[in-house]
Each structure stands twice: as C-alpha cells, then as structure tokens.
Design goal:
The protein is 40% helix and 16% strand. The protein is α/β, with parallel strands linked by helices. The chain folds into two domains: 359 residues, TIM Barrel, CATH 3.20.20.80; 62 residues, no CATH class. The strands form three sheets. Strands 1-2-3-4-5-6-7-8 form an eight-stranded parallel barrel. A two-stranded antiparallel sheet has the order 9-10. The protein has a two-stranded antiparallel sheet with strand order 11-12.
Length: 432
C-alpha cells in the first residue's frame, strides 16, 4: 500500500523522518510503550499498519460493545489467529446496556464468563478494561460508586472462577480525565455535572476505586478536541492533565499503581473563524502540521513523565477523512488507511517506544522470559528457582533423556504450582 501518494506528502514528512532518526541515535534511554487501537476493531487493520510502516506493536487494543456472546468470542478467535500469542492484548468488554447494579445481579455473567474462558483457552496475556470511564454520566454503569465497586469485585471474582490470575489478565481501572457524573439516569444525552475538586456535592473518581486487591493498573483517557465540527479550545496534554480545577494527573499518581493512558488522541482541524464544514475539510487536507504539533507535544509529555508506562492512541477516524459530518469531533486517526494519510510524528512516537514484549510482560504481568531450544517461555517470576533447577537437571542430556527425566518428575506429583507448569512447557518443546 502506498501510504505517501504524492510528492508533496513525502516532502512534508521527510524532515520529520530525519528528526526521528537523529533523535533515535542521540537518545534511546527515553522509553515508554506506544500502542494503537485497531481503527475498525479487526486484526487485519493492525496487520496492514505493521506491514506498511515496518513497525511492531507489542500491544494492540480492541473494544467490544457486544450485542451477542458469539460476536466477542469469534472476534477473539480471529484476532489471536491473525496476530498470534506473541503480544499483549488490551481488550475492553462493556456490559452492553446494563447498569452496575444489573451487573451485580448476574445480568452479564454469561458473557463475562465466556470471555474469561476464552482468554484461558487461548493462553494469552490480556489487559482487561470493563465499565470504563465510570466517573461520568454517559454509560449505564456510571454515577453510582457503591454499586460500581460491587460490580467490579463481582466481575473480578468471575475471572478467578475461570482460573485466571494476574499472569493472564490485569484489571484496568480506567477513568475519564474529568469527573462528570449526572443526577439523571446515565445516557449519552444526560446533563453532566462538572464535578471539579472544589465541589463536595458530587462524586469523584476516587469514590469508585474498588481497593488495591482488585486493581492491577490505573489508566485514564483524554482527548484534544479542536474544530472538526464545533468551536473547542486547543489544549496541550499538560494543560489538560494539570488543569487546577481537576488536578487529574497528581490524583492518578496517588493510587500508586502502574499508570497507562488507555485512550488518547487529537483531532486535526483548528482555525480562528466560526465552524464551517467546507473550511474544516480544506484545513484537514492541507495542514497536517497542526495535528503533528499536538502529537509531538504528546511525545514530549510521555518523555517528561517516565512513570507513565504506556499510551494507547485511539487510532480511529469516524469521519473517514472528514468526508462527512458527525456529531462530535472525531477525525482522530494517526495512521489513517482510509485516505493513505500518516501523520509524521507517528514515527517519532513509535521510535521512542523501545521497550519490547518481554519488558512489558516482566514489568506488568511479573513474568520472566526464558529461551529454550530457540523458543521463548514466559513464566511467573516466582517460579525462577524451580524452572532453573529442572533446566540444570536436563542440561547436556539427549532429547530422549530429557523427556525421560521430565516424565519421572511428573510421576512424583509434587505439590507446587511452578513445577507442573515448568514441566508442561518443557514437554511441549521436546515432544515436537
């Protein structure tokens, strides 16, 4: 696929590519994980991006708002078949139209349980987001902290009943960057309360937190909205997250959990006149530098805040290249395959994403990487001693002798979580 379909585009991006290469050469210590959401929720989209741009995304994001159980399960089968298990998946599973109270009353249990069983079956590593942005008023599970906490613990318990633990699945407490509850029944049209830090008559994100035991990572979402079809202010990441009315970033840090930005994006269009679709379309086609500037600011924010583990860019353009109007500003894509448009600072963001899959697994899932017979094994860090002991016992043996030793250890039925798992990994390798 020819992503740069004109000399003008190539000429525009060439200086940026040179800056990217120079930055990479002089400083590779500034490093965070940079990931993308699939723009159309398909693995084919991720495959195309990786092949076209020559990048590797160790973590990819998919959002499921299911209307049927099979929709989600078939999607996961397809995703894992295409993208395989050698990466981490960020999956959002929303409980459809149900409130937090209905989740507690088992209304979505069948879908959650089937999802968890599928994760166990595929033996993949998942960062799991559910009932996200609960500190607002647009989704059914919003605006009631006590019901939300009960629902969260209920869903966490379902994952453990499916024999999942923190080596397979991490629970992602994902908040909106501003507290915006409602006194109405939550919906997309409910009037929102701007619940800044000085107010005591409304709920804040801290009220929803369901205790450390049930949360593995704390994530937050924020967007820069310009003038795709309204008259919004342009704000940098610093201005958004350090707004004194909300003080969002310092409050997120107070949870003392790994921090990840799990939705971030910017729209493209900004000009001084009142909104006009024709003007917006012209700006979109001719002024990539405006979006590039904000993406560069995002990169600088990530570099200056090393405690942020990662950022997932919400790589979706609901306007399909600003070819039609929609309700909100939504021309967000960084890599837009609809019109072969790639914003230049994507390369800068990706270049500084130096941490690879084994680093992510060790830091977030507490797994260590072992290489045996050229195959990578990811095993719980608590199993280092047992696994190393077995490896030393079979070292310098023939394949048949190794399998014989492994089988004899299996026969002893040693009561340990680590030894059976270690033996299973090694049996699979040496039986090939």
């Amino acid at each position: 696929m020819a992503l740069f379909h004109s000399y003008k585009q190539l000429k525009t991006i060439l200086p940026i590519l040179l800056i990217w290469i120079f930055s990479l050469l002089i400083n590779t210590s500034e490093s965070y994980y940079f990931w993308l959401k699939s723009s159309d929720n398909t693995p084919e989209n991720i495959e195309t991006i990786e092949k076209s741009l020559g990048v590797n995304l160790p973590v990819v994001s998919f959002i499921f708002d299911p209307r049927s159980e099979n929709n989600v399960l078939n999607s996961i089968d397809n995703i894992v078949e295409k993208l395989w298990t050698d990466r981490i998946y960020h999956f959002t599973l929303s409980p459809d139209k149900y409130s937090a109270n209905e989740v507690v009353l088992w209304k979505f249990d069948a879908q959650y349980s089937a999802f968890f069983k599928k994760i166990k079956e595929k033996d993949i590593h998942v960062i799991f987001r559910t009932m996200h942005e609960m500190n607002g008023g647009r989704y059914p599970w919003w605006s009631n902290p006590e019901k939300f906490k009960a629902a969260w613990i209920h869903v966490w318990t379902l994952s453990r009943l499916a024999w999942l633990n923190e080596e397979n699945i991490l629970f992602d407490f994902s908040v909106n960057h501003r507290d915006m509850p409602t006194n109405w029944t939550p919906s997309q049209t409910a009037p929102l309360i701007q619940c800044n830090q000085s107010r005591t008559d409304c709920y804040h994100l801290e009220d929803y937190y369901p205790w450390d035991e049930f949360v593995d990572v704390v994530w937050f979402t924020f967007y820069n909205r310009w003038k795709a079809n309204s008259n919004r202010l342009r704000l940098s990441p610093e201005q958004i997250l350090y707004d004194p009315n909300w003080n969002t970033y310092e409050r997120i840090k107070a949870f003392n959990k790994p921090i990840i930005i799990d939705e971030v994006a910017t729209t493209s269009v900004r000009y001084e006149w009142n909104y006009s679709f024709e003007k917006s379309r012209s700006e979109y086609l001719n002024h990539d530098e405006r979006k590039d500037h904000w993406i560069h600011q995002l990169r600088e924010f990530l570099v200056n805040h090393p405690e942020i583990t990662a950022a997932i860019y919400f790589n979706t353009d609901y306007t399909h290249g600003l070819s039609f109007k929609i309700i909100w500003e939504a021309d967000r894509a960084l890599v837009n395959l609809d019109d072969h448009k790639v914003y230049g600072w994507f390369q800068e963001l990706e270049a500084f994403s130096e941490k690879k899959l084994d680093n992510i697994l060790s830091s977030l899932f507490h797994l260590n990487k072992f290489t045996v017979e050229w195959e990578n094994i990811f095993l719980s860090s608590k199993c280092n001693k047992e696994f190393s002991m077995i490896l030393s016992m079979i070292d310098k043996k023939t394949k048949e002798e190794k399998l014989d030793i492994i089988n004899k250890i299996k026969e002893k039925n040693i009561k340990s979580d680590c030894i059976p798992k270690s033996l299973s990994f090694l049996s699979n390798i040496y039986n090939k």
